[in-house]
Structure formats: C-alpha cells, structure tokens
Amino acid sequence: MPKRILQGTVTSDQNEQTVTVLVERRYKHPLLHKTVRSSKKYRAHDPKNEFKVGDTVRIQECAPISKTKRWEVVTAV
C-alpha cells in the first residue's frame, strides 16, 4: 500500500529534529454547497533541522518515530 504524501506549511521548528506542519484541506459542504476549509497539524521528523517557519513542505507517512511523530519531511516545495 502506498504511503500518503501531504503538503503543508511549517508552523513551528522549536524542537530538535521535529517540525509542526499545518495541512489545509478544502471540500464542498454536502448540503450547503459551500467550500469549507479544515486544517490539521502533524508533527514530522526533520533530521537535519533544515526547515524553518513559513516553509512549504511535503510530508510522508512512516513508522512511528516517537509518541507523536508518524510523518517525515520529504522535500520543500
């Protein structure tokens, strides 16, 4: 089964080897037919500490690295 890849913006890089990525999703409301924006934050592994706040990155699923980290940064966009 292929691993999911998501794109989002780095909102925090304070922790060592970890970035927090905000991923926004848009969909049409089934009844009101209005575009709804929902977002979710993911903690991703950044081994070289190369990404800073405001960077747009792609993250990919991986095996659990810590209690909250199940994603790793693939590339910057």
Structure description:
The protein is mainly β. Helices cover 0% and strands 55% of the residues. The chain has strands at residues 5-12, 18-28, 35-45, 56-61, 71-76. It has a five-stranded mixed barrel with strand order 1-2-3-5-4. The chain is globular, with a radius of gyration of 14 Å. The relative contact order is 0.31.
Question: What proportion of the residues form beta strands (DSSP E)?
Answer: over 45%
Termini separation (Å)? 24 Å
Which structural class do you get from the secondary structure elements? mainly beta
Domain module tally: 1
In CATH, the homologous superfamily goes by the name Nucleic acid-binding proteins
Please identify the top-level CATH class: Mainly Beta
Radius of gyration: 14 Å
Major sheet strand order: 1-2-3-5-4
Give the beta-strand count.
5
Poorly predicted tracts of residues: none
* Major sheet description: 5 strands, mixed, barrel
CATH topology grouping: OB fold (Dihydrolipoamide Acetyltransferase, E2P)
Contiguous helical run count: 0
- Return the average pLDDT rounded to an integer: 96
Order of helices and strands: EEEEE
User: In which range does the helix fraction lie?
Assistant: under 10%
| CATH architectural group | Beta Barrel
Shape: globular
Keywords: Ribonucleoprotein, Ribosomal protein, RNA-binding, rRNA-binding
Protein name: Small ribosomal subunit protein uS17
Subunit structure: Part of the 30S ribosomal subunit.
Organism: Tropicimonas sediminicola
